[in-house]
Amino acid sequence: MSNLKTGSGSCLCKRVKITAPSISNKVWACHCTMCRGWGGGAFLSVDCGTDVVFEGEDNIAVYDSSQWAERGFCKQCGTHLFYRIKDNRQCFMPAGLFGQGDVFEFEIQVFIDERPAYYCFSNETRKLTGEEAFAEFTP
After folding, report:
1. How many domains does the chain fold into?
2. Based on CB atoms within 10 Å of each CB, which residue in 41, 84, 135, 138 is the most buried?
3. How many Å apart are CA 57 and CA 74, to the nearest integer?
4. What is the pLDDT of residues 19-52, one digit of tens each?
5. Please, what's the b/e burial string for 35-65 (b: 16 or more CB within 10 A of its CB; e: otherwise)?
6. Is residue 1 in a domain?
7. Quick check: is 2 in a domain?
């Protein structure tokens, strides 16, 4: 994983500020039903590791979305903040939070088997089904 030095951003209302000391420059798209329901389309995220610092944590609501992960959003403006693995607190955060679009590279699409027919990215990426993604990334 190639990392940027630090990523920083905020929600739309600026009540939650984020600093990610080891943000990846690789963008992932998740096409799973839950991600699409959460945001209306694929979840375009970057891996921010486990050392993410949040200012304004009292403005963060956390939804327990599965046995292994939770999703966070700003209580005030609704901005999606993270998809976080419960076991190790690893955060995958929307790439758009960081305003550094020119340094990101679209690398992989997961749950490609759940992608609906009404959209398709033209970028050349790795493509994994849900089963393949769980096999590759679950310890």
Report:
1. 1
2. 84
3. 9
4. 999 899 999 999 999 999 999 999 999 999 999 9
5. bbebeeebbbbbbbbeebebebeebbeeeee
6. no
7. no
With respect to residue 47, please indicate whether it lies within any of the assigned structural domains.
yes
As a whole number of angstroms, the longest Cα–Cα distance in the chain is 40
Q: Is 115 exposed, middle or buried (0-12, 13-18, 19+ CB in 10 A)?
A: buried
d(CA 71, CA 19): 17
Distance CA 9, CA 63 (A): 21
Residue range 87-105: average pLDDT? 88
Average pLDDT for 10-19? 97
CATH of residue 110: 2.170.150.70
- Rounded CA-CA distance 63/127 in Å is 27
Residues 102/49/47/76 CA torsion (nearest 10 deg): -90
